[in-house]
Amino acid sequence: MFIYTLDTGVLTPEQRLAYEENGFILIRKLVSDQDIDRFRKEFERICKREVKVPGLVVMRDVTIAKSEYVEGEKAVTKLQDYQEDPELFRYCILPQILKYVESFTGPNIMAMHTMLINKPPDTGKKTSRHPMHQDLHYFPFRPADRIVCSWTAMEKVHRGNGCLVVLPGSHHGTLLEHDYPQWEGGVNKMYHGVRDYDPNHPRVHLEMEKGDTVFFHPLLIHGSGMNQTDGFRKAISCHYASSDCYYIDVKGTTQEIISNEVKELAAKKYGVDDSVTFQDTWALRGRLVQGDRTSM
Ligand SMILES: CCCCCCCCCC(=O)SCCNC(=O)CCNC(=O)[C@H](O)C(C)(C)COP(=O)(O)OP(=O)(O)OC[C@H]1O[C@@H](n2cnc3c(N)ncnc32)[C@H](O)[C@@H]1OP(=O)(O)O
Ligand SMILES: Nc1ncnc2c1ncn2[C@@H]1O[C@H](COP(=O)(O)OP(=O)(O)OP(=O)(O)O)[C@@H](O)[C@H]1O
Ligand SMILES: O=C(O)CCC(=O)C(=O)O
Ligand SMILES: [Fe+2]
Ligand SMILES: [Mg+2]
């Protein structure tokens, strides 16, 4: 019985079984070098402020943000919400990506959350790490099984520059409690981690080449290690959901704290008041990329 995947004729039975069992599947060389080079150029243009993108969040590493002023792409840890940048948003509508995404979401597809991650060389404080987490912690929509993340390496990613680390099979569990990890050197805004996860659970380091793409379930526990090189480790990603998903009320759940944190930031960013809900912030960001916008 398949729960996590749909029969669209794209995944082989072996690939479906692997995703059901592990919660992720890696497809080699899915995005071309030419496309990735275009994303990289656009990233550079954004960092040089040659283009201004409505709604884009430019996040700097907490160590740098709190100590010195650095200009350009060396200051940027992550771009978030690039959906209004047509050049970067091309990633979210690449036919070969959507073809796979449909095996998890079905035919009506929304791009809900977009990111370009530029993991900086660690400053020595280990703030370049991303704590182990489940992406569903940030999402007030369900069902979880109709949500998937697509994450593409923009260059070789390996243990040394902080590749993704996943706990295979952890998507079979439930959404766990998250909060800020107690890290001496500080932690980036909103980088919550799973409070208690089994340290003996097998870990897999996903070493990937430029263009390799991993699709993973929003309950899969994952993170990334320190970048111990002097280069910026780049990846581009999009979280997709079926437009047939529905919003949930997170009041009284483990997601209440993050929802308040997001609402507070949204209030600052858009200058709106409390009446904008956590769900609204997602409905505003979401973009239909295939089929019909039925519910989200
Ligand atoms: C909505 C969540 C979506 C998550 C989806 C799925 C899974 C993804 C898992 C994650 O990636 S979780 C992380 C999600 N990240 C975000 O949502 C972006 C959060 N960051 C921001 O919104 C901005 O970077 C931030 C508001 C924190 C700062 O931007 P600003 O343009 O206001 O920066 P500015 O330099 O003016 O600094 C303002 C204050 O923020 C502080 N700051 C800047 N960067 C920071 C940082 N990285 N961490 C902590 N604090 C930071 C900075 O020190 C300063 O503090 P003080 O007011 O005390 O002086
Ligand atoms: N003390 C910690 N508490 C919570 N999470 C941690 C801690 N140390 C590392 N992690 C998380 O574990 C994952 C792997 O990080 P780690 O630095 O161990 O990986 P790595 O550098 O790729 O592997 P290794 O150091 O074993 O070669 C990341 O998500 C990281 O944020
Ligand atoms: O380090 C990375 O690229 C992974 C980041 C991540 O998991 C996330 O932002 O949700
Ligand atoms: Fe994540
Ligand atoms: Mg380690």
UniProtKB/TrEMBL annotation:
It comes from Carassius auratus (Goldfish). Its EC number is 1.14.11.18. GO terms for molecular function: L-ascorbic acid binding; metal ion binding; phytanoyl-CoA dioxygenase activity. Pathway: Lipid metabolism; fatty acid metabolism. GO terms for cellular component: peroxisome. This is Phytanoyl-CoA dioxygenase, peroxisomal. InterPro entries: PhyH, Phytyl_CoA_dOase-like. Keywords: Dioxygenase, Iron, Metal-binding, Oxidoreductase, Vitamin C. Pfam families: PhyH. It comes from the Eukaryota. Gene3D superfamilies: q2cbj1_9rhob like domain. One of its GO terms (biological process) is fatty acid alpha-oxidation. Its cofactor is L-ascorbate; ATP; Fe cation. The gene is phyh. Belongs to the PhyH family. It catalyses: octanoyl-CoA + 2-oxoglutarate + O2 = 2-hydroxyoctanoyl-CoA + succinate + CO2; dodecanoyl-CoA + 2-oxoglutarate + O2 = 2-hydroxydodecanoyl-CoA + succinate + CO2; heptadecanoyl-CoA + 2-oxoglutarate + O2 = 2-hydroxyheptadecanoyl-CoA + succinate + CO2; phytanoyl-CoA + 2-oxoglutarate + O2 = 2-hydroxyphytanoyl-CoA + succinate + CO2.
